[in-house]
Amino acid sequence: MIFKQLFDNKSSTYTYIISSGKGREALIIDPVIENTKEYLNVLKELNLKLVKVIDTHIHADHISGLNELSKQTSCSKIMGSHSASEVIDIRVKDNEKIKIENIELISMYTPGHTDCSYSFFMKDRVFTGDTLLINGTGRTDFQNGSSYDAYDSLFKKLLKLPEKTFVYPAHDYNGKKYSTIENEKKNNPRLQVNSPEEYAEIMRNLKLSNPKMMDIAVPANKKGLTLKDIAK
Length: 232
Ligand code: FE2
Fold this sequence. Notes:
globular; binds fe (ii) ion; Metallo-beta-lactamase, Chain A; single chain; alpha/beta; six-stranded mixed beta sheet; 7 helices
């Protein structure tokens, strides 16, 4: 299997390229539009054919490369069924299979950070978007977020996965690349709570300022802007 984790310095976003092998089909999760060329170079180097691109949710801190990649490669654009994006080809519901050759991802509806947040489980790993971060969890104070929904997504879904499952989030701000469900259960400070109310209390008290890009990124990601659009 080919598995590449790429990092966007500006937004601290992780993007994942997955394929069963050189010369085969590939899939990208959470691309950043400014890095489109880098992704296309990796694909070319490995002789990969990009067939699917997935966004875990409508991002507020960067413009997604989903539509641009699709324009350049004709790959299918996938998001969860709750997404407000206008350019999605395939909308998955909870517990659906996304396949490329012998690789299979299972969609998990994990709202809370936003109402459109999905995670994607693949054999020994899970792509958690901003629902579960390493030593943290996604904020729940905009884009129809809900700390109660987030609690359920975390405790009733993601933390129920096998403990050895690797956690690959959409962001990390401290240089960590991955974690495991076991590690997050034990050490993530946000997850050391005994009730949804306790979790909601922590989230209520975060008092974070809005992401700098929010007013640009959210509408851009709903419309599916391309490089040409943002160059105007
Ligand atoms: Fe997010």
